[in-house]
Design brief:
heterodimer, A: MetI-like fold, B: 294 residues, alpha/beta, 44% helix
Chain lengths: 316, 294
């Protein structure tokens, strides 16, 4: 319990630091947003007025704190290029991306755990090289290439979905999930290969340990040892790895969203950077950072639930 | 109880046989000490008896009979029935020999879970009895601890509890005291002696330390390079070693210990803890300090 409180406090502190750095960075490089909004022909009076409206005439720290308090109350500022509240712009895209990442994550977990187990059990088998080769191939294929392949095969040839025609989540949830599934698979495949390899080597390592010999000396079969002892011991590193995966697939989704024409955060982020729409970029950077840190924290909390040794954190 | 006849084991990745024709017997309720330096084949001998040889990685021949039944060539399903129920094994490093993520009590009762259809409550009762048997303070609390929460001595006691919970006829002890400090070592030896007397368990006690073996075993076999070079009553081997290797081993024991041992032997107390009498003063006072909760 104490561990959880400590981890969550750490999460909040990190978040505030990240938000400060993000805000400061954009403050320094942004040039004059008023000019960017009004164009080069604007009169100095109008520019001054705009600056006042945007709060840019105030000191840096005051700007930061009003932005921060706004952030916590859901007010992320106004987008420069759309002239709309950032929150209402981001929300629908965040939903799409989160849904896709979730689907992808479920695919990764559901596929890699049994595959990793099997791969470890058959590691000394005759066809091990086939499995390893397939795994390496899956890891080596870039996600965008997979996306092109999948869109072509399932979208154009088999017509299981219509590339470019993404249904609105709120109106047609099932259709959206169906569409996102294909993109999610593309994100998942290389990740599955990595997780399988990681799980396989962890299990093989664990099987060499002394407690396995003890368990066998009590009359366990190897498969029982695997189920009763080794699996749980292999789980902690796997969960840490999956936590990283959870964070990284959001990054991976950017390219895949482009290929599939999915209106998610990735596309929005790219567009906002090229439009110099800093309130949007700031918000997205903080949200992404939050996602990464949250994934790590959740993985740590679960790992700590499984392995009591990790609960000693306080004394170390 | 246990009969080993002309046991040979050769690992595929080695040139020399790890065990090259070893024969010995352990009678009902007897403790045999097996001494030798590391690599002399004593552990491999024990693994062959316990059915723990990696059979795909070695060639083996000979007979290993436990209660008249062959362990060396038996199939896995037979070995399973014997392992844990008829043969208990205690390994050198209690910390790594235990599953770090399973509570000690669950590991102690694992044998019962595999070999009997006892109800969970009854298994727990038996496990706590076994933990009491090995003289752990507050066995109920130990039952719910994880291995990392116990000291090395307490863990080794728990390992012994796990090995005796089903009252096997034979206990294989592979360097059970080597990883422990001297006071705890003396306590464990005393405990093993008690278990041997109380339950009439036969034991094979393996150690590289002849002096430790002498405290517990009436009979001892000395192994070198895969063969038994000398075997006999501990006092005979200890005071009148025939083989040069045994003489060499004995030369390694400090002179003072030998003097005390001699005195004890002459006063017909061959299995008393000898220099342990000096030590046990410390051992008594150290019970609390030495075996602490972390």
């Amino acid at each position: 319990m104490k561990f959880a409180v400590r981890r969550i406090t750490a999460l909040l502190i990190t978040m505030i630091m990240v938000s400060f750095l993000a805000f400061a960075a954009f403050h320094m490089i942004s040039g004059d947003p008023a000019q960017a909004i009004l164009g080069t022909n604007a009169t100095p009076e109008r520019l001054e007025l705009m600056r006042q409206q945007l709060g840019l005439d105030k000191p840096f720290l005051v700007q930061y704190f009003s932005w921060l308090t706004g952030f916590f109350s859901g007010n992320l500022g106004i987008s420069y290029s759309y002239r709309q509240p950032v929150a209402s712009l981001i929300m629908p895209k965040l939903k799409v991306t989160l849904l896709m990442v979730m689907i992808s994550f479920v695919i990764i977990v559901v596929c890699s755990l049994p595959l990793g187990l099997r791969s470890a059990q058959k590691a000394s088998g005759r066809f091990d090289w086939v499995r390893t080769t397939i795994g390496q191939l899956c890891m080596a294929v870039p996600a965008f290439f997979l996306s092109i392949l999948v869109s072509y095969l399932f979208g154009i040839v088999l017509k299981w979905f219509t590339p470019g025609d993404f249904p609105k989540i709120d109106r047609n949830f099932a259709g959206a999930v169906r569409y996102l599934f294909f993109a999610a698979v593309c994100i998942a495949i290389p990740r599955i290969a990595m997780t399988v390899r990681m799980l396989r080597s962890t299990i093989i390592q664990e099987m060499e340990k002394d407690y396995v010999r003890t368990a066998i000396s009590r009359g366990n079969d190897r498969s029982e040892v695997l189920r009763k002892h080794v699996l749980k011991n292999s789980l902690v590193p796997t969960i840490t790895f999956l936590g990283q995966t959870m964070a990284e697939i959001v990054g991976g989704s950017i390219v895949v969203e482009q290929v599939f024409g999915i209106p998610g955060m990735g596309r929005f982020l790219v567009a906002s950077i090229s439009n110099r729409d800093y309130p949007v970029v700031e918000a997205l950077v903080v949200i992404l950072a939050f996602w990464v840190i949250l994934s790590g924290t959740v993985a740590d909390l679960i790992g700590q639930k499984i392995d009591p040794r990790l609960r000693l954190g306080g004394r170390a | 109880m246990l009969e080993v006849r002309d046991l040979h084991v050769k690992f595929h990745n080695r040139d020399r046989e790890a065990v090259a024709g070893v024969s010995f017997t352990i009678r009902e309720g007897e403790i045999l000490g097996l001494v030798g330096e590391s690599g002399s084949g004593k552990s491999v001998t024990a693994m062959s008896i316990a059915g723990l040889l990696p059979r795909k990685k070695c060639d083996y021949r000979g007979d290993v009979l436990v209660d008249g039944e062959d362990m060396l060539h038996a199939d896995r399903s037979f070995l399973r029935k014997v392992q844990g129920s008829k043969i208990g094994v205690v390994f050198q490093e209690p910390m790594s020999a235990m599953d770090p993520l399973m509570k000690v009590g669950k590991q102690v009762e694992e044998v019962l879970e595999i070999h009997t259809d006892m109800k969970p409550e009854e298994r727990k009762k038996r496990a706590i009895e076994a933990l009491t048997d090995v003289e752990l303070p507050d066995p109920e609390a130990v039952y719910d601890k994880y291995p990392h929460e116990l000291s090395g001595g307490m863990l080794q006691r728990s390992m012994i509890a796990a090995a005796i919970v089903s009252r096997p006829g034979l206990l294989l002890l592979d360097e059970p005291t080597t990883a422990l400090d001297v006071t705890i070592q003396a306590q464990i030896l005393k405990l093993l002696e008690k278990l041997n007397k109380e339950y009439g368990m036969s034991m094979l006690f393996i150690s590289h330390n002849l002096n430790v073996v002498r405290k517990l075993c009436k009979r001892v076999a000395v192994m070198q390079k895969g063969v038994i070079v000398e075997e006999g009553l501990t006092d005979d081997v200890f005071f009148r070693p025939q083989h040069p290797y045994t003489q060499h081993l004995i030369a390694c024991i400090p002179a003072r210990v030998k003097v005390i041992a001699k005195k004890n032997a002459e006063s017909r107390m061959p299995t008393e803890l000898t220099e342990g009498t000096v030590l046990s003063v410390n051992a008594e006072t150290d019970v609390k300090g030495g075996e602490r909760y972390e």
